[in-house]
């Protein structure tokens, strides 16, 4: 067998198809049957490598099926080995945040504590019972597709164990922009909004919309107090969009929801991201949300607080007004936003680079 399949550090079991159905928990009790077991090291649970184990077992199954079809085999990996898959590669650190469906921790690779990431840990049974698996599958698919986008939190890894899902992502040290009653200097909010708008342009251009854009999902890359780089996080509600394809779901944070979502009207996707961008800009500039409830959102009635009226430039106030249009057809599109006079300084800085 070693000559046929080569050396491996993995432990796996290949067994007749009818025996696999019983999923025996004790390998040693079945070794005298028609099984093929290969392992190196005294404890195969500790030396098990999930990817190579599956690959080699697949090759064994293929060989057995081709040479003796009547002994067709399947590969079975024990739940105990699956549960070790994440900890074989990573080690959990302290808790960063906790949401409805997941907890976010710092994590490190076992080979080097210098490689630090964030990991979103989800309970598998809860995700299944709440019908969230399709969203998770789509999130992972989208994150893989946009992993090289500069304005998006980078996808690192995704793993499934016996009872958990692990989504490993780039660790952003600066925290989110969502600070209650806190206003940013106009140079900062201009930079943040311009960066997010450029990221949205890229996403919309490849047929993806975020669907949950809010200040809590915009994070600074580092803790610098000066103007710094920001990235979008949490693509759990994101979806694919294309001209003519309509959506009709109301998801995300109510205070950032576009009127058409609350009215259960159909939309393509990018327009609801743009509305949410306007809400983000308003809150960055004033420290307050522009709308207090769903009725106010549907009517599109908002007012910039008097204490901020004189502090904000006319360009900033105009951009907010042009984005927060109830009628999506009258709302600025992403190209018009990026070309708005409010971002003249950002475009000049970009041209200098």
TrEMBL record:
UniProt-listed Gene3D superfamilies: Transferase(Phosphotransferase) domain 1
GO molecular function, one term: protein serine/threonine kinase activity
Keywords tagged on the record: ATP-binding, Kinase, Nucleotide-binding, Serine/threonine-protein kinase, Transferase
GO cellular component: nucleus
Pfam short name (any one): Pkinase
Keyword Chaperone set for record: no
Domain of life: Eukaryota
Domain Protein kinase span(s) in chain numbering: 90-343
The protein's name: Protein kinase domain-containing protein
Ranges in a coiled coil: none
Keyword hit for Repeat: no
InterPro entries in the record: Kinase-like_dom_sf, Prot_kinase_dom
């Amino acid at each position: 067998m070693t000559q046929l399949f080569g050396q491996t550090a993995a432990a796996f079991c290949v067994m007749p198809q009818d025996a696999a159905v019983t999923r025996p928990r004790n390998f040693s009790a079945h070794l005298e049957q028609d099984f093929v077991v290969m392992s190196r090291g005294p404890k195969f649970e500790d030396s098990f490598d999930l990817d190579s184990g599956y690959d080699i077992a697949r090759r064994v199954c293929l060989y057995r099926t081709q040479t003796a079809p009547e002994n067709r085999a399947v590969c079975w990996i024990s739940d105990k080995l699956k549960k070790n898959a994440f900890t074989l590669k990573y080690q959990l650190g302290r808790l960063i945040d906790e949401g409805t469906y997941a907890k976010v921790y710092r994590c490190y690779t076992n080979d080097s504590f210098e490689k630090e990431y964030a990991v979103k840990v989800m309970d598998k049974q809860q995700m299944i019972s709440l019908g969230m698996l399709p969203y998770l599958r789509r999130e992972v698919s989208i994150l893989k597709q946009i992993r090289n986008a500069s304005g998006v939190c980078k996808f690192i890894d995704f793993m499934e164990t016996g009872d958990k899902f692990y989504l490993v992502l780039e660790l952003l040290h600066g925290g989110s922009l969502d600070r209650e009653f806190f206003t940013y200097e106009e140079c900062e909010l201009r930079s943040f909004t311009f960066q997010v708008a450029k990221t949205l342009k890229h996403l919309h251009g490849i047929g993806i919309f975020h669907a949950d854009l809010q200040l809590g999902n915009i994070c600074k890359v580092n803790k610098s107090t000066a103007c710094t780089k920001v990235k979008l996080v949490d693509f759990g509600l994101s979806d694919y969009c294309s001209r003519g394809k309509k959506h009709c779901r109301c998801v995300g944070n109510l205070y950032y929801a576009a009127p058409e979502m609350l009215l259960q009207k159909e939309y393509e996707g990018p327009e609801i991201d743009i509305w949410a961008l306007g809400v983000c800009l308003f809150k960055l500039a004033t420290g307050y949300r522009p709308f207090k409830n769903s009725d106010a959102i549907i009517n599109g009635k908002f007012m910039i607080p008097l204490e901020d009226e004189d502090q904000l430039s006319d360009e900033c106030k105009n951009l907010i007004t042009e984005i927060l249009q109830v009628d999506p057809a009258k709302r600025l599109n992403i190209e018009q936003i990026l070309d708005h006079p409010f971002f003249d300084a950002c475009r000049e800085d970009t041209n200098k680079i």
